[in-house]
Recover the amino acids of this structure.
């Protein structure tokens, strides 16, 4: 019975993570659209400022008490890490195709799983290791195919390095989330994870500010809503399952990224992307097993 309950909890956590990744990938696609017209720092600020509006409403409506001083300090550090993750990834998005940026970000699950072992003392069994390896091979197939096609320029290299930097910030951000997921409620985590970065980025964004067009205001509000919605699913997922078991689910972001890349930008995946996606599916299926 205990094993059945554990399996059901893991399945539910993975489903939550898959939906969360899909919502956040849609947010990334809209961010990429906006990056053609606005500076990355302004986009990052508006993403969190808009998210703060929804997070505050959720916090007040839930009747959650103001968090302790310990929680405030911890979440302040998490906000700084979140800024690093967002700014570096959004920079990569402005320089690379959506699916390519997503593929390069697949270094994150490896770093995340290893950090979970080091900092959280989580298990790292052979099956999880194999799942991560399969997903990483998929990433190498995708990126290798693109490099072989000669599509890499100095601009692309800068974008790739920015995305790689974001993977380290992202992994650390999710580890910090895992540490607080069972202590702070979802409304508290979302409030700090949006309001904190908004405050940090307000001054830098002011230096590069461009007054948004009326239609873009709606897009930035949508970005904020998607950010809050996606992270709501991710927080609930990480509160129910170990980091190493959920890390391979991030590989499904390639499927989302490819779909949105086609819908928004007309970028169809090549043979390397399709082959890499096969490893992605294998990785995710392996992660669902005990």
């Amino acid at each position: 019975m205990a094993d059945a309950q554990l399996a059901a909890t893991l399945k539910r956590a993975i489903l939550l993570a898959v939906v969360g990744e899909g919502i956040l990938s849609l947010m990334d696609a809209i961010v990429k659209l906006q990056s053609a017209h606005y500076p990355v720092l302004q986009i990052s600020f508006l993403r969190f400022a808009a998210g703060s509006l929804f997070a505050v409403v959720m916090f007040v409506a839930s009747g959650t008490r103001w968090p302790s001083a310990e929680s405030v300090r911890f979440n302040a550090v998490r906000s700084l890490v979140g800024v690093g993750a967002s700014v570096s990834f959004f920079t990569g998005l402005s320089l690379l195709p959506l699916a390519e940026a997503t593929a390069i970000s697949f270094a994150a699950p490896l770093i995340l799983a290893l950090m979970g072992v080091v900092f959280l003392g989580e298990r790292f069994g052979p099956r999880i290791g194999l799942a991560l390896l399969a997903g990483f091979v998929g990433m190498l197939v995708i990126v290798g195919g693109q490099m072989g096609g000669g599509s890499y320029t100095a601009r692309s290299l800068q974008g790739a390095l920015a995305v790689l930097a974001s993977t380290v910030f992202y992994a650390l951000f999710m580890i910090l989330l895992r540490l607080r997921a069972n202590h702070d409620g979802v409304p508290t985590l979302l409030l700090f994870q949006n309001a904190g970065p908004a405050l940090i980025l307000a001054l830098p964004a002011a230096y590069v500010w461009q007054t948004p067009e009326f239609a873009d205001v709606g897009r930035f509000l949508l970005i904020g809503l998607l950010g809050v919605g996606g992270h709501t699913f991710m927080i609930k997922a990480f509160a129910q399952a170990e980091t190493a078991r959920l890390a391979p689910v991030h590989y499904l972001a390639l499927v989302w990224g490819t779909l949105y890349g086609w819908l928004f930008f007309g970028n169809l995946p090549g043979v390397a992307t399709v082959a890499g996606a096969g490893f992605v599916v294998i990785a995710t299926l392996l992660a669902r097993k005990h």
Q: What stands out?
A: The chain has one domain: 2-287. The radius of gyration is 18 Å. Residues 2-35 form the longest helix (34 residues).
